[in-house]
Design a protein that fits this description.
The chain is mostly helical. The chain has one helix and no strands.
């Protein structure tokens, strides 16, 4: 058995562009609506 150490140098919070959000909404919109409810 081995021991792993995970580190990262990402900023906190990780920046996300509007385009990236739109891609997720397009691909996973139905799932998001099911989990969180549709837009009002």
């Amino acid at each position: 058995m081995s021991e792993w150490t995970v580190t990262d140098n990402w900023p906190d919070p990780v920046p996300v562009t509007e385009t990236e959000i739109e891609v997720f909404e397009r691909w996973f919109g139905d799932l998001f609506d099911e989990l969180f409810g549709p837009d009002a």
